[in-house]
Amino acid sequence: MDLTQVSSSPSRGGAPAKNAPDNAVQQLGLLDERPFFRRLGAFDWLFALAMVAGAGFALSRYHPFMNYYDKLVLVCAVPVFVTLGWRWKPVRLLIASIAVLSLFAIQVYQGDLARADSAFFLKYFLSSQSAILWMSALFVLATLFYWISLLSRSPTGAAIGSKMTWAAVLMGFVGLMVRWYESYLIGADVGHIPISNLYEVFVLFSLITALFYLYYEQHYNTRALGAFVLLVISAAVGFLMWYSISRDAQQIQPLVPALQSWWMKIHVPANFIGYGSFALSAMVGVAYLVKENGMLADRLPPLDVLDDLMYKSIAVGFAFFTIATILGALWAAQAWGGYWSWDPKETWALIVWLNYAAWLHMRLMKGLRGAVAAWWALTGLLVTTFAFLGVNMFLSGLHSYGKL
Asked: What are the backbone angles phi and psi of residue 252, rounded to the nearest 5°?
């Protein structure tokens, strides 16, 4: 329901209903003037308790493999995920499912990596490679169902696509968590968080982009954009499959010296939250241009909704990309003795930052809207893709360890 439509709808006498906005808000359950903590119920506090207990379990069991900074990140992650679960309730089941399946896989391994080829659940479902393959297949199938729904006006197809996207996110995160454990089974000196090479970060990119989309899908109460957003995720999956086949990239390798730092554990996720949000804004921009040109116009959300989603995605992405850039500079100072060296990766990261800073400036100061904003968002994805992937392919520098 669109509140703007409700508030402007006439009453039976032809004049706008006096209390229409208030009534609509109350009917939708959006008006609750109680303080936030007083709105929390028993399940909210049980979820928070479960998160604290989970962190305690992780600290007690895996503390020999964690340094001071790892423990600090884990402790700080608890309030972040608790707040996320309170604000976005569907993510609770996702977090619980990831924990259960990951711990089950660890139990089945029994400390022996060779069981990945013999134990049924590991071989076909829960080893890192199997889980990521399931993720890839589910994302592609979700894309197909979203498009079938959009073209045939079938809400059932979109519902199936949404559930498949959730399942893909679950399997992808399980795959990363199990891959983390597998790296330690290879050797304590090999073990590392699985965000160190193109294979692993493409998985992370797909998951973050999908999670952002699923949040906005619920927030705006529309599944029509899934057909567009899942296209960029399927493209990432396609690259992931090619990269695995041609480079055997799914194999776990020891970290190169430059990446043996705790900075990687916060810099890379922040970076890819930015990348995922930028990708989402670009695909929303595509949907905007499609609707504006009269195609699928009656099946996509209103242009002002698409414009608002595009703006929010870029704003969130810009905030996290800024944090990632600052963290990267601090990491560079520690690793290479200087905050900035005009390395090709750093230079293109600055270009990406300036591009979206200009977009937001034009939006906030000049009222940037419409097709120009959409084309700019789409162009931004091309610039970001080159900064993320093209630099690795065509240029060299201090970040050359990420080469194809």
From this structure: -80, 125
Lowest mean pLDDT: which of 4-18, 97-111, 390-404?
4-18
User: Helix H segments across 110-255?
Assistant: 120-121, 128-152, 155-186, 198-219, 226-247
The pair of three-digit structure tokens given for residue 347, joined into one six-digit string: 């230079």
Q: Please check whether residue 177 is in contact with residue 170, taking contact to mean a CB–CB distance below 8 angstroms.
A: no
pLDDT reading at 346 higher than 50: yes
CB 306 within 8 A of CB 288: yes
Gap between the Cα atoms of 125 and 128, Å rounded: 8
Residue 395: strand, helix, or coil: coil
pTM, two decimal places: 0.89
CA neighbor of 387 nearest in space, from 294, 300, 271: 271
* Helix (H/G/I), strand (E/B), else coil: 403: coil
Query: Distance between CA 98 and CA 1 in Å, rounded?
Result: 33
The Cα 12–Cα 212 span in angstroms is 41
